[in-house]
Amino acid sequence: MQNTDITIVGGGSAGLTLALLLARQQLRVVLVEQGPAPSAAAPAYNRVSALNMASRSLFQQLGIWPQLLAGAAAYTTMQVWEADSFAKIGFSAEQQQLEALGYICDNEHIRQLLYSQLQQYSNVQCYFNVAISQLKQGEREVMLQLDNNELVLSQLLVGADGVNSFVRQHMQLPLTHWDYQHTAIVAKIRCTEPHQLSARQVFLPSGPLALLPLPEPDVCSIVWSAETAEAKRLMALDNTAFEQALCAASQAVLGPVKLQSERQAFGLTMRYASSWQRGRVVLVADAAHSIHPLAGQGMNLGLMDVTALAQLIGEQQALAEDIAATAMLRRYERWRKAEAQSMIVAMEAFKRGFSAKPALAKLLRGLGLAAVDQLPLIKQQLMAYALGLKGDLPELVKNQGAVVDSLP
């Protein structure tokens, strides 16, 4: 039997980040993951995330940013437009007085670097390739039994185990969800024209297509979110036909393209747990919420969840109070629920706004985007929130301006 302060279920980026934050606070941590441990390998860019400035600041302070940046693409401009319309808007790092608008990073590379850093701490024990047999909680502790017969007792258990969270289901925490009726197709492509470190997104009648720059000057990652029937049709095409369809959908903005990886398809569902904690168990990141990928904010939202939770736990430590006190966990829940709700509402409004097909709706979209594009102050405010420079941020990343300015 192992006694620890905090058990984290889930070894994705959110769970590993939380483990590292808590390890730095001198807490004893056990991390449990049903999959294998991250292994060192060159980034493959099969699944990527767009990290904003708040996430950059977090990883800088955790000591992994230089290595992560070496395998990332810093995009300096963003172009958004609607097919068959004059609706368009552009953003640039120069307008924001920043060196980049964000960073396209390989998801598995993030995990590798976090795990490598975590191994420096003797107060963290990681269990990989294990499942949970039992989860029970009492008044002062949570008991976890693993399928390797190991027992773990902790003061707090954190569910960071993704959209199909075992912890959320086992604790019967209610979940609100709706099917976006979209499927995301992801792949890596080589383009005829250089991407010039610009992130591009075109809204098509069936859904948005994003072209995200990767470190090679002519290679991009695509996230093509389409109505499910259309996505199935696209996935059924052979490579040549798919490449032609992709070139047409992107209006050949980067010329003819060639697939550089297998295509993968993922159904898109909005999930939102109406309760994020029960007793000494709490949810973070995708276990608590998932959103449409059209703005690329899912990873950033989850990373701020765990940073906020670590901050509140640290405040409890400083007061020599219970690190799983109900009042503290509810404070975390209120704080991060508000941020998640704002993002869910914004993404749904954006998706529905661009899904409306009547000519009048298309005209209004065009006029609205054209107006915003000519109003620098409004554009700066919009981008400040997307970049993680504004909002109810954790203290660790609030003063990120000085950090960002000092970085190469």
TrEMBL record:
Residue span(s) of domain FAD-binding: 4-344
One MF term in the entry's GO annotations: 2-polyprenylphenol 6-hydroxylase activity
Pathway(s) where this gene product acts: Cofactor biosynthesis; ubiquinone biosynthesis
Highest rank taxon of the organism: Bacteria
A biological process term (GO) from this entry: ubiquinone biosynthetic process
InterPro entries according to UniProt: FAD-bd, FAD/NAD-bd_sf, Ubi_Hdrlase_CS, UbiH/COQ6, UbiH/COQ6_monooxygenase
Entries under SUPFAM superfamilies matching the protein: FAD/NAD(P)-binding domain (SSF51905)
Signal peptide: none
Keywords associated with the record: FAD, Flavoprotein, Monooxygenase, Oxidoreductase, Ubiquinone
Cofactor(s) needed for function: FAD
Family, similarity comment: Belongs to the UbiH/COQ6 family.
Assembly notes: Component of the Ubi complex metabolon, which regroups five ubiquinone biosynthesis proteins (UbiE, UbiF, UbiG, UbiH and UbiI) and two accessory factors (UbiK and the lipid-binding protein UbiJ).
Matching NCBIfam families: Ubi-OHases (TIGR01988)
Protein name: Ubiquinone biosynthesis protein UbiH
The organism's taxonomic lineage, starting at the top: Bacteria, Pseudomonadati, Pseudomonadota, Gammaproteobacteria, Chromatiales
